[in-house]
Amino acid sequence: MNKIYLPLAFFALLACETKPSGTASGEDLVTIDTTVALDTMTDAEKAALGVTNVSESKPTKVSEEEVAKALKPLRKSYDEFKKIGWYYAPNGFRYKSDNQVSAYMGKEGENIWLRFVVAYSGDDWLFVKGCKILTDKNDYDIIPENDFERDNAGGDVWEWIDETMTPTYFSMLEDISTSKKAKIRYNGNQYYHDRNITQREKQAIATILKAYKKATGRDTYQ
């Protein structure tokens, strides 16, 4: 929502010039008339008067009942030591030993946030340094803040990052979830591995983002 701020002198001038002898208060008239005036003013006229547009995205207040309803479809685990509930898409992957691009949600008291995960699994190490993702319309470079973690068992290896969500990652995940075709390249020390991001991954991403938006009243990540 854009908030517009005007000099006090401008409000006084409008109030003096437009107040009729009817029953509306001066305060009401200033509100009505400044709205009409601003709608008809050019950017240059607004600048001359010192008008400033401030773009502000405020979340809608969400009740505890609405938060509980938004989180109910998700798979939950609870860390009793940290007092944090972790929420995952029921149609998503349970372990980081699976190839995936995903997100999951944390909740501590009234605080709700997201985590971002990319994982590679195969029969040989890549020593992944970063990734590139292609969607229907965009491409994204993923340069993690921390090194990929690694583990192995039974002849399989897996490498992954589990990072703080950012507005950029959030927008990218929205793009992935709505793209007909999305691909990821894991860039290693010497080699790389390409694969398609599956429909299951897209659906799981969409599930988590939808739950986050409902639980927080936000359409974007902040």
Low-confidence stretches: 1-40, 51-56
Q: Give the total of beta strands.
A: 12
Which structural class do you get from the secondary structure elements?
alpha+beta
Report the helical percentage: 25-40%
Gross morphology is: globular
Characterize the largest beta sheet: strand count, sense, and whether it forms a barrel: 6 strands, antiparallel
Radius of gyration: 25 Å
For the residues shown, what is the average pLDDT? 83
Q: End-to-end distance, in Å?
A: 16 Å
Number of helices: 6
Number of domains: 2
The proportion of residues in beta strands is 25-35%
Q: Write the element-wise H/E pattern from the N-terminal end onward.
A: EHHHEHEEEEEEEEHEEH
| Widest sheet: strand ordering | 3-4-5-6-10-9
List keywords for this structure.
four-stranded antiparallel sheet; 2 domains; alpha+beta; six-stranded antiparallel sheet; 222 residues; single chain
